[in-house]
Amino acid sequence: MNMDKKSYARYVEARAPRSPLLADCLRAFLVGGGICLLAEGMIQLLMHLAGMAREDSATLTSVALVLIAVVLTGIGVFDRIAQFAGGGTLVPITGFANAVASSAIDSRAEGFVLGVGAKIFTVAGPVLLYGTASGALYGVIYFICKLAFGA
Fold this sequence. Notes:
Elements: H1 5-15, H2 21-49, H3 54-74, H4 77-85, H5 92-106, H6 112-119, H7 124-149
């Protein structure tokens, strides 16, 4: 079968299963919101039961969410949750923890140095790079605006 790119795109479009968009969005919203609700509940518990300051309880909650995401990734549960929830599991801290842990798990057979050590940030590395670069660019723009407009 000899097709050009447009014909092939129409062929794929006609035969690809339709995604239930509303159901996907609802599942993502519920799971992502559930993760955020869990985090806020942990913060409130630490503030009221342990008497911690909000900043301290938020920091401890972030660490706990990373630990939970890494453990769930390690035992294969996070992937099943992500398959169900789609983008809902990409709440920044849990999604980032999953990306780092998945890279480490996938490359552990190659050894700790050339496998895990070299490939642990293959997915998360660009996030770190472009996040840092965009933050620096924003800082330069902010500095120039402060100089130009004085506010």
